[in-house]
Specification:
D-tyrosyl-trna(Tyr) Deacylase, Chain: A, alpha/beta, single chain
Length: 147
């Protein structure tokens, strides 16, 4: 599994002109499920993401508080293009992406893992849909996490 994490002051996702998810301050997670990924990987990533300290404390240091400490929200958007490889030619190769039925189950399980780890506001896009994602990056703070 591959996650592109961005710390945001707000974010939303729309499908066919219909808003389907939004958060205020927190994280936007673009989640790519790769061939061979398992529930254990989803659980590990959810644990890491809920504990990673990317929010400032009273002294202003960036790495003082976690999403759980701040009560922030998480917006998760499925993104198979994170599996893309561009080593050969100019057309990305997405064969490393998990099959849609497997990927959707792991995507749903990942959402459940975030909630069971204590994130109160978990919003999401619609798996497999064309989505418009709006976000206001804070920092900017961006990480790539992979398991």
């Amino acid at each position: 599994m591959r996650v592109l994490l961005q710390r945001v002051t707000e974010a939303s996702v729309t499908v066919e002109n219909e808003p389907i998810g939004s958060i205020r301050a927190g994280f936007v997670l673009f989640l790519g499920v790769l061939e061979g990924d398992t529930g254990d990987k989803a659980l590990w990533l959810a644990d890491k993401i809920t504990k990673v300290r990317l929010f400032p404390g009273e002294d202003g240091k960036i790495n003082d508080r976690s999403i759980l400490d701040t009560g922030g929200g998480i917006l998760v958007v499925s993104q198979f293009t994170l599996a893309g490889k561009t080593e050969k030619g100019n057309r990305p190769d997405y064969t490393a992406a998990a099959k849609p039925d497997v990927a959707e189950k792991l995507y749903d399980y990942f959402l459940e893992c975030l909630r069971t780890h204590g994130v109160q506001n978990v919003a999401c896009g619609r798996f497999g849909a064309h989505m418009e994602v709006r976000l206001l990056n804070d920092g900017p703070v961006t990480l790539i996490l992979e398991r």
